[in-house]
Design goal:
The chain contains six helices and six strands; from the N terminus they run ααβββααββαβα. The protein has helices at residues 7-12, 20-24, 57-62, 68-76, 98-106, 122-125; strands at residues 30-34, 47-49, 52-55, 83-88, 91-96, 111-116. The strands form two sheets. The protein has a four-stranded mixed beta sheet with strand order 1-6-4-5. A hairpin with a 2-residue loop joins β4 and β5 (91-96).
């Protein structure tokens, strides 16, 4: 089977697969972060339509009628949960919470709640 992952995701993404459920179980303090530190995610096709990574979050934000399923999923995201992030290649990369970040941006929020997962937790969250 051909690898359908775009090169940009390979360039910025993690080199391991993780379990979101295992991430959720970690005991990590919640802190506030400026949303601008994370909105770079919006220009990377981290979302997919038809089973392949081909949709940028910014396209969902800008054209909600063209991407109704993802927009509805975004607006149903519960902002009570923090966004789980990990430092990777010099920036904060989302482990879980992209739709929450998108919703926060749509709602014009300046900050979001995050949990900064240290790289020492990688063995704890592997699939």
């Amino acid at each position: 089977m051909k690898d359908e992952t775009p090169q940009i995701i390979k360039d910025v993404g993690f080199d391991f697969s993780w379990s979101e459920e295992k991430v959720w179980k970690l005991t990590i303090p919640v802190e506030e972060m400026d949303i601008q530190e994370l909105v770079w995610h919006f220009d990377i096709p981290f979302l997919w339509e038809d089973g392949v990574y081909n949709l940028k979050p910014q396209d969902v934000i800008d054209f909600p009628d063209a991407h109704k399923k993802e927009y509805e999923r975004t607006m149903k995201a519960d902002l009570i949960h923090p966004i789980d992030i990990m430092e990777n290649k010099g920036c904060w990369l989302i482990l879980d919470g992209l739709h929450r970040l998108m919703k926060a941006s749509i709602l014009k929020m300046n900050t979001v709640q995050v949990r900064k997962v240290g790289r020492e937790h990688i063995p704890d969250i592997l699939q």
